[in-house]
Amino acid sequence: MAYDYEKSIRPGKLPHIWCPGCGHGIVMKGLIRAMDACGLDRTNTAIVSGIGCASRLPGYLDACTLHTAHGRAAAFATGVKMAKPSMNVICCGGDGDGTAIGGNHFIHACRRNIDMTYVVMNNFIYGMTGGQFSPCTPTGAKASTTPYGNPDPIFDISKLAIGAGATFVARTTAAHPREIDKLITMGIKHKGMAIIEVLDDCPTTYGRRNKFRSVVDMMKHLKANAVPAVAAAKMTAEQLEGKFLTGVLFQEERPEYTAQYAEVIKKAQGA
Amino acid sequence: MAKKVALLQGNQACAAGAIYAGAKFFAGYPITPSTEVAEELSIELPKVGGSFIQMEDEIAAMAAVIGGSLTGAKSITATSGPGVSLKQELIGYACIAEVPCVIINVMRGGPSTGMPTGPGQSDVMQAMWGTHGDHAAIALVPSTVQEIFTETVRAFNLAEKYRMPVQVLFDEIVGHMRERIEFPEPGELEVIDRAPVTVSPAEYKPYDATKGQVPPLAAFGSGYKFHVTGLNKAADGFPTTKAEYVDAEERRQINKVKDNADDIVKFEEYLTEDADVVIWAYGSTARSARYAVNELRKEGKKVGLFRPLTIWPFPEKRTAELAKQCKGIVVAEMNLGQMVYEVERVAKGNCVVVHEGRVDGEPINPGQIMAKVKEVL
């Protein structure tokens, strides 16, 4: 029997704005399955995003949804969680939104280890504005503002999250739909800041400028270069050249921020 | 029973007013000369079961305040010049998404870093026009430590009643001045809470104009699932580009303030009945102005003071009346000309309007105002 996604989707809000072949829909389905797997009560779940194609995701989901300003998802979400720690908080957005204009909020949310799950759809480009390079556009790649090839080095979002202090960091791709919901489920269940980076495809503004002849080519590229972190441990640096690690990349237990603040309240009240 | 009194700094009185009003969430970033508001609330909020967070930057603080308010918590931030500039985009977000919150701006000089420890009154136009796009604004300008307390309470009331950001601006002099304050008893000052939602979750629309000019805002996590966005939206909260919806929403959001100006505008007058010249001043400058009025009266000169507590919406009705009954209005403010343009606009040439300003980090003194008044008399 087909999976019932419709119960989680707001009536009348489809079709979505995403282009044919865009991976964001695959991620949204993964998120729905993960929320179901965790048994999240959607009336008590805030889904917060910034600006960009990926940030339009919350509008389709039947929950408390907050589509904020460019880059600010993690900061708005922190306010929601601090003022109402009993809420489940999920952030989503793109690579430019999360790590360029929103980079400061992203790293500090990781540092605090506040209990939320942030799904970053990394499609290597600013899609909504027509394909300008992001901090995740591969060096040398073509974007509308790198007509001679991108001179910038990239951010590795997962490494950034680990370095900043997130306590659950995982990566997968839009070509691995089953792994998407598995990892988001683990992220939601994890007490603390969970970053799930999903390498995604933008056929419209990235693919066509960078010699991907079709969406299938882009998906094949994601599949061919994904190496599970466990397998990578046995591979040489040469073998790993141009590959990206997938699966759970980092996990540790560390005091969660709102739990720490609950202790502050106790102290202030003389308990 | 005798009232509880204290010798308090303006910034501390602001924090005390916030607690009195029922604030439950503060997010901020350290900045002179407003930091004591944050410090005080970091002590007091957890005592009342609220929460305090120091964010990574000014923008984040404004974002967190909006997020916190959406859960139903009365929310506040405090900052100063550069911080207010950084917050502007999200102040606009709070306007269009109609999220109640209070923004304290302890004013210093500027532009840019300016004189962080000196007073200024040069953010008063920014309070109206700082964020882009058409929007309404409410801004309050207390003059004394006691008034900072009461106006902070009023700011929360107006924010909740009109479902929008409200700014309280006071210059560094009032913010750091220590004065005697009497704490109002609980119930003595009106405290307005967010209007309850009266429809079922299935029927709820966050921008339903049929529920009035200010449709009730449900809280996240209270059983209502709805969408909040900074995009232009229809009654159901979802983005739209349909001209009729966009136009109706924009106008409603501006009219909710315009049509209720009498409820929002507050001012005080001193010896204006027979005044030939009216001094128009606010904040610490109004204290010098009152002194100037007394001195000039001793000299037999008919001078009065108009002191707005609300600058946005602009107190245009009363200012226009005064312009018709006096020879001249002297607008004294610690900037090189801001509110004076509004006074000129509503005076419509019925009287002379002149400006007395100062931006050197020193307060405007009574002598300076008296000299300007004598030029007009």
Which short descriptors sum up this protein?
heterodimer; A: 271 residues; alpha/beta; Rossmann fold; two-stranded antiparallel ribbon; 9 helices; 10 strands; 19% strand; B: 377 residues; 5-stranded mixed β-sheet; 13 helices; globular
Describe this structure in words.
Chain A is an alpha/beta fold and 271 residues long. Chain A has a single domain (18-268), classed as Thiamin diphosphate (ThDP)-binding fold, Pyr/PP domains (Rossmann fold), CATH 3.40.50.970. Chain A contains nine helices and ten strands. In chain A, the strands form two sheets. Chain A has an eight-stranded mixed β-sheet, with helices on both faces. In chain A, strands 5-6 form a two-stranded antiparallel ribbon. Chain A starts with 23 loop residues before the first helix and ends with a helix. Chain B has 377 residues and is α/β, with parallel strands linked by helices. Chain B folds into three domains: 5-182, Rossmann fold; 209-262, no CATH class; 269-376, 3-Layer(aba) Sandwich (Rossmann fold). The termini of chain B are far apart. In chain B, β6 (138-140), α6 (145-162) and β7 (165-171) form a beta-alpha-beta unit. The interface between A and B is large, with 40 and 44 residues. β2 (64-67) of chain A pairs parallel with β9 (227-229) of chain B, so a sheet runs across the interface.
SSE order and pairing:
The complex is a heterodimer of chains A (about 270) and B (about 375).
Chain A: H1 24-37, E1 45-49, E2 64-67, H2 73-83, E3 88-94, H3 95-101, H4 103-112, E4 116-122, E5 125-126, E6 132-133, H5 157-164, E7 168-173, H6 177-189, E8 193-199, H7 215-225, E9 226-228, H8 229-232, E10 244-251, H9 257-268
Parallel strand pairs in A: 1-2, 1-3, 3-4, 4-8, 7-8, 9-10
Antiparallel strand pairs in A: 5-6, 7-10
Chain B: E1 5-9, H1 10-21, E2 25-28, H2 35-47, E3 51-54, H3 58-70, E4 75-79, H4 81-97, E5 101-107, H5 126-129, E6 138-140, H6 145-162, E7 165-171, H7 172-176, E8 178-182, E9 227-229, H8 243-258, H9 261-264, E10 267-270, E11 277-281, H10 283-298, E12 303-308, E13 310-312, H11 316-325, E14 328-333, H12 339-347, E15 352-357, H13 366-376
Parallel strand pairs in B: 2-3, 2-4, 4-5, 5-7, 6-7, 11-12, 11-14, 14-15
Antiparallel strand pairs in B: 1-8, 6-13, 10-12
Helix pairs in contact in B: 1-2, 1-6, 3-4, 10-13, 11-12
